[in-house]
Design a protein that fits this description.
Blueprint (H helix, E strand, L loop, with lengths): L3 E4 L24 E4 L3 E16 L6 E2 L5 E2 L2 E14 L2 E12 L22 H4 L5 E12 H4 L10 E15 L6 E15 L3 E16 L23 E2 L4 E11 L10 E10 L27 E12 H6 L7 E11 L13 E3 L2 E2 L4 E12 L1
Antiparallel strand pairs: 1-2, 3-6, 3-19, 4-5, 6-7, 7-8, 8-9, 9-10, 10-11, 11-12, 11-13, 13-14, 14-15, 15-16, 16-19, 17-18
C-alpha cells in the first residue's frame, strides 16, 4: 500500500499579537501531502553465463575408451529482479539453461539409450540438448520495518525478517522433471566490512509436487505395480523438511582506490531428507523384481565464491557502478535433488561405480548487465 508523509512548507515566525496575511512570507505554502515511492530501490539485470561441467542426474554417456562422461555443459540466460520496499525485499530470478548433447531433449533416442548406454557417444552426440526453465522467488518482511523499531539492529545484526519463497522448474528431456516447492522461515542479516552483508535463513522446505519419469510405471527405473513400486503418472510428493540458505556480498574496499572495481559474493544452502526417491512410495532397499526406492539425503548446493569485476565503473566512473559486471565463480552441488550420490541408481552405473551425475563441481563465468 502507499505510504504518505506530510511536509510542512512554512517559515518559522515569531509573532506577538494577531497576524495578517501581509505578515507571512510571500512564498509560504500550505501543508502538502507528497507520495513516498512504493519502492525504495528497483534493480533489474540480465545475465549470460557458461557452465562447462554441469550435471543432470541419470544423464551420461560412454566414451569410446569405455570411460563415463557424466558432465553436461550448459549455457545459462537469466533475468533477475530485486527491490526494496517499505517493509522488506523481493528477489525474483528466471533462467533458461541449455544443455549440450549429453543431456538430450525428448524425443530423440530410444528409451534407455542415454540412461543405460550401450553404443558409446554416437546417438547422444546426434541429439539436441535439453532446455530447462528454472524460476525462484524470495521475499522478506523486516521486523524493524513492521514494528517501526530499531530493536533488531544490534551490531553486527542489522535486521530479522520473515522469509517466504518458492521454486519451480521444467525440463524437456525424456524424464521431464518438473518440481514445485515452497519455503518459509526467518532471515537474519548481519553486517560485513565495506558495506557488505551476510544473510542466514533457517527455513521449512516443502517439495510438494515433483514429476520425474523414472518413478513412472514402465520407465525401466521402477517396478510394475502402481502404488507399490511405481507411480502411474510419475508425480512424486515429498515430505516437508528443514533448510538453511545463506548468502553474502562484500566490496574489496581494502584495495587501492585505483583498483576498487572488485567484489566477492557467494551462497550456500542445505536441504534436509524429504522421504524416498519416489515418495510417497515406501522405502525399498533390497528389491526383488524392481529397482530400489532409497531414502533421499541432505542436499548441499553452493557457489562458495564469485569474484566480480565492475567493468562499467572501471570504464566510465563511479556513476555507472555495476551497470556491467564480469564475473567468475566456483559452483558445487552434492546429492543433487536429494539423491544419494553413493547409493542411488540414478547416480551409479552399478553399485560403487558412479556415473558422475549427482555431484556438480564446475567453474562458472558470465557477464551481467543492468537496465
Amino acid at each position: 500500500m502507499n505510504r504518505r508523509c506530510t511536509i510542512l512548507a512554512v517559515s518559522m515566525l515569531s509573532i506577538t499579537g494577531s497576524a495578517s496575511a501581509a505578515d507571512l512570507p510571500a512564498k509560504a505554502s500550505p501543508a502538502v501531502a507528497v507520495d513516498t515511492p512504493f519502492f525504495k530501490l528497483i534493480d533489474d539485470r540480465i545475465t549470460v553465463s557458461w557452465m562447462p561441467a554441469g550435471t543432470d542426474p541419470g544423464n551420461y554417456s560412454i566414451r569410446p575408451d569405455g570411460s563415463i562422461n557424466g558432465k553436461t555443459a550448459k549455457q545459462v540466460y537469466s533475468f533477475t529482479h530485486f527491490d526494496i520496499w517499505a517493509y522488506g525485499t523481493n528477489f525474483f530470478n528466471i533462467s533458461l539453461l541449455k544443455s549440450d548433447h549429453n543431456d538430450p531433449a525428448n524425443p530423440c533416442t530410444n528409451a534407455g539409450v542415454i540412461f543405460n548406454p550401450t553404443n558409446g557417444t554416437t546417438t547422444s552426440a546426434a541429439c539436441e540438448g535439453a532446455s530447462e526453465i528454472f524460476g525462484q522467488i524470495r521475499s522478506t518482511f523486516g521486523w524493524n520495518e513492521i514494528f517501526n523499531t530499531k530493536a533488531f539492529a544490534i551490531d553486527p545484526l542489522r535486521n530479522i525478517s520473515f522469509a517466504v519463497g518458492l521454486d519451480a522448474n521444467t525440463v524437456n528431456n525424456r524424464l521431464a522433471p518438473a518440481k514445485r516447492d515452497v519455503v518459509a522461515g526467518l532471515q537474519f542479516q548481519f553486517a560485513l566490512p565495506y558495506k557488505g552483508f551476510f544473510n542466514v535463513s533457517p527455513l521449512m522446505y516443502w517439495d510438494f509436487a515433483n514429476h520425474n519419469g523414472f518413478a513412472q510405471c514402465g520407465s525401466g527405473f521402477s517396478g510394475p505395480v502402481p502404488g507399490v513400486n511405481c507411480l502411474i503418472d510419475g508425480h512424486r510428493s515429498y515430505n516437508p523438511t528443514w533448510a538453511i540458505e545463506t548468502n553474502y556480498y562484500m566490496d574489496l574496499g581494502f584495495l587501492p582506490e585505483s583498483m576498487q572495481f572488485f567484489s566477492i559474493s557467494g551462497r550456500a544452502a542445505w536441504y534436509g531428507p524429504k522421504g524416498t526417491e519416489s515418495n510417497p512410495l515406501p522405502y525399498n532397499p533390497l528389491p526383488v523384481a524392481a529397482p530400489a526406492n532409497l531414502n533421499t539425503t541432505v542436499e548441499f548446493n553452493a557457489e562458495p565464491i564469485r569474484l566480480t569485476f565492475d567493468a562499467s565503473k572501471a570504464a566510465w566512473g563511479p556513476k555507472y557502478s555495476h551497470f556491467v559486471d564480469m564475473w567468475v565463480a566456483y559452483r558445487y552441488w552434492q546429492n543433487k535433488f536429494g539423491l544419494d550420490h553413493e547409493k542411488s541408481r540414478l547416480c551409479n552405473v552399478s553399485p560403487g561405480v558412479s556415473n558422475n551425475t549427482c555431484t556438480e563441481s564446475t567453474i562458472y563465468s558470465g557477464i551481467t548487465m543492468k537496465f
